[in-house]
Amino acid sequence: MKHPSEEILALHAGGDLGWVARWKTARHLANCARCAAEVAANARFRETLPELNQTPEVPWNRIAAEMRANIRLGLAAGECVRPSGRPLRDSPLFTGARATLALASVLALMATGLMLEGPAPRMARPDEPVVQATVDGIQRRWGDQGFGLMHSGASSVTYTVGAQGTLGARYTDPETGNVTMTKVYVE
Amino acid sequence: MKTLAAAMVFLGAASLAAQDAAIPPGAVNINLPDNSPLALKSFSMADSRAMARGAALALDLHMSATLVNNGSRRIHGVTLRVVAQEVTLGGKGSVTYPSLNVGPGESFQVRIDMQLMRPSQVIGAPLVQVDLDGVLFQDLSFFGPDRLNSRRTMTACEMEAQRDREYFKRILAQAGKGGLQRAMLESMARQSEVSQLAVSVKRSGRAVTSAAIGAEHEAEFAFLQFPDSPVEPVKGSARISGNEARTPLIEVRNKSNRPVKYVEMGWIVSDPSGKQYMAGSLPSADSDLILPPGQSARLLQETTLNFSAKGQPVNVRKMVGFVNQVEFADGKIWVPNRQNLDNAHLLNVLPASAEEQRLTDLYRKHGPDALVAELSKF
């Protein structure tokens, strides 16, 4: 069995694959426990990086509408500069500036679509360190680096924030029974 | 300094090229000073793994240690400083175990779970350095370098613990075991009803981008006054924009006759529906503040806090401040008493103290007899 590459599995976990690749990968995962486990591990990993999931939705319909409007505007502009004495029905459909404009618009549409749908993962990269709570811990994030103190398995976790740039968590450790207070620092 | 567990380990690129590799115990240095009242009895890093995730490296560390009290005094709190500077630039944290009661010769278990992530593989050096930052004893004396102000933190916890134990012991004396049970049930109900905010903190500028951000404006704090507080808030404000609060500033006055070196204000925010949340605390700067009697000082932090709850932004409508902690120049700590908190309805907004949390956990798991026995130890 030929397995998808590690990059493909990582992109699949983040929902960043195009639909064809996604369908092919999903078919493979249905029959391959090893790759399915890898995808699950990637998904868990993403949970520790909440901002990966905070990429704003791309407004596809609005972009498409704007591009259609631009094409219409271009065609209308071409119509305005057309010599008035020449009847429209006499001009061939795709010639000269009109054909160039239409072709350029189509190419621009395709290039934009490829760029936005491309397989590069979209990672938010905070330009300054941030401390924040995750699903089961507290962490300091700065760019690609993360430092987290976890409280997996603990219930009733209380978070405390210091305006000087700290985030703390307090919980009863389910194994030792000790009240435990963790803290991470922005600086 | 004596290195007790382990040595430098070389986790080279070759060993981590594999997708998933175990991390050996030597990857963590635990340093306890020679004259430390604590000694390391055992240490384990079972199930600790390094995982390649694309171009990034994720380290999952599960540390478990047994520490023994080698001193002659009872230990009531321990703080460990955890640094992963070689793996994540600026990665620093602390793990505190308050509400301990460990006698001479007795041992106790501690656990530290960590997740580290960096874009490339580790070439050398220990992954994590764990140092003792402080030990608090029953008589409130302290041992340790105190680089993270753990003395103040643990002493304040101990003051709250003494306050809350006294409260429950008084109920036991006045209303018996039945009264204590009712108080425990009330406390558990209160703890479950306290609303929590998810807050992200950034040093300056705006925090995480949010759709709720609008025009920024200056909002004033309202204050709760405690009659016996040595410090009183005078005025305060913060820059508010939707669910973000920036550069909080509060002016306080020392109304006691003793010099004060640290003040911490509690900070409550209300959303548009009037629901109140404990947003955080506003401490005076770490550099030593000396506030003589009758004098005023300003608590200012150049940070931005972003508030949300259940994944939704929480817009700030009102802000309330109260004095949460005061440290005098001689190291003595003041915390609000239960009457103050109850009168100001703060018990329904603030999380329970570490000790109240421990006592209610004990009651929940082992019943009223175990709780009565525990209270009788103090």
Q: Helix and strand succession of chain B?
A: EHEEEEEEEEEEHEEEEEEEEEEEHH
Helix fraction of chain A by DSSP (H/I, runs of at least 4)? 40-55%
CATH fold-level name of the largest domain in chain B? Immunoglobulin-like
Output mean pLDDT of chain A.
74
Biggest interface reads: A-B, 59 and 72 residues
Describe the structure.
- Helices cover 42% and strands 19% of the residues of chain A.
- Chain A is an alpha+beta fold and 187 residues long.
- Chain A has three domains: 6-47, no CATH class; 60-117; 130-185, no CATH class.
- In chain A, strands 1-2-3 form a three-stranded antiparallel β-sheet, with no helix packed on it. A three-stranded antiparallel β-sheet of chain A has the order 4-5-6, with no helix packed on it.
- In chain A, strand 5 and strand 6 form a beta hairpin.
- Residues 50-58 and 117-125 of chain A have low confidence and may be disordered.
- Chain B has helices at 13-16, 150-193, 338-343, 354-375; strands at 2-5, 20-22, 28-32, 38-44, 49-53, 56-69, 75-83, 92-97, 107-118, 128-137, 142-143, 198-202, 217-223, 231-241, 244-254, 260-270, 276-283, 296-300, 304-309, 312-313, 318-328, 333-334.
- Chain B is globular.
- Mean pLDDT of chain B is 86; it is low at 1-18 and 206-212.
- In chain B, helix 2 packs across helix 4.
- Helix content of chain B is 20%, strand content 41%.
- In chain B, a hairpin with a 2-residue loop joins strand 5 and strand 6 (56-69).
- At the A-B interface, helix 1, helix 3, strand 1, strand 2 and strand 3 of A face strand 5, strand 6, strand 8, strand 9 and helix 2 of B.
- Strand 6 (179-185) of chain A pairs antiparallel with strand 8 (92-97) of chain B.
